[in-house]
Design goal:
Structural class: alpha/beta
Order of helices and strands: EHEHEHHEHEHEHEHHEHEHEHEHEHEHHH
Number of strands: 13
CATH superfamily of the largest domain: Glycogen Phosphorylase B
Number of helices: 17
Largest sheet: 7 strands, parallel
Strand content: 15-25%
CATH topology of the largest domain: Rossmann fold
Oligomer: single chain
Number of domains: 2
Strand order of the largest sheet: 3-2-1-4-5-6-7
Length: about 400
Amino acid sequence: MSKPLSILILDNTYAFGGAIRSLGNLLRAFDKDRFEPVLVTGQSVEFLAEHFECTWYHYVPSRSWQDNQMYKKVAALTLFRILIMRKILNLLFFLYWAAFVTIPEAIKFFRLGRKHNVALVHLNNIMGCQIAGILAAKLLHVPCVAHLRDFETVDAFTRFYARHIDHHVAISVAIRDNLRQLGVPDERITVIHDGLELTEFQATVVTSRLAEEFGLITGQLVFGIFGRVVEWKGIREFILAARAVLDAVPEARAFIVGSHSDGDENFFLTMQKLVSDLGLAGKVVFTGYRDDVPDLMRMMDVIVHASVRPEPFGMVVIEGMAMKKPVVATHGGGVLDIIVDGETGLLVEMGDAEALGRAIISLLNQRDLRWKMGTAGLARVSHMFTSRRCASEMATIYHKLAVGV
């Protein structure tokens, strides 16, 4: 048997979220006889030790020079509102960042790649923050794959970066379209949807513990939103929708499962105040961060995804469907690849709290429809959104680039 291909995976996340969870699902699904991942990430050592069995290195990656606080302050000055002056500023910061941040970081990655004799470099998450990884692949003389998990700004710099990547993996059709805007030809783009380890979401769990913890009674209807408590995730809209839902279905309870994570703690506190101001204290529950998300999803009758801007993909959506739960989600981004409106869930316009509330009420009041949509959703996830399928499709790209077959 030939030796497994060593793959250097550079992940530029350091907050817990869909990007690192999806990557973990992918790496666990890889055939260990074919691939030997070497992961470099800013995730905590404790998290890595618990969730990743491959070789890994804890290294907090640098952000893009455009995210630098000094750059933002200088760029906000009146002088740099003039187009030519802004271009000069951008060039100077780009050169400074390249000399003192990007090149030293690329050398670190090059040395790791050479140590492990890697055959390919895989960039996980945002391409514009992975310049050191692109450069490291060039120094190693190996192909570079960018696994794009969010929308990139369409500008001259990102177009430049995109041209120096051998192949792009988009997690949704919406992300593919973003890559097209960057000038990437279709033959260098493959859409590979994120996948789940279905067994994690299909284990039989007794939810009486959770019912007791949250003071729920048998048969009480429950709906909830899962993820970081940040503004663009539609938390405000969910709370406003919950007001209407709880007026129509008084015995129901609403859950907001997650913390502010890398977001604004003030927003989290503001949302708690909004719940209080609307008279929903005790009816809308903030759980904070939980490590038993599958159990909480199983407790729900309806799962809500309320993002107010296009979602790159929507892991929560496929997780809910894997639990045989109907999902109410906003219409846009990667969610359109997942939900078949009226069959596996309901879609509403982004930012429309009234429509969101009506959709939740409709499902809470129709048990048979919830069951029908949940069953159809599980079938769709089992066919299209498994980590095994994701890993198989990624393996095809790896071999084509690194081996030529």
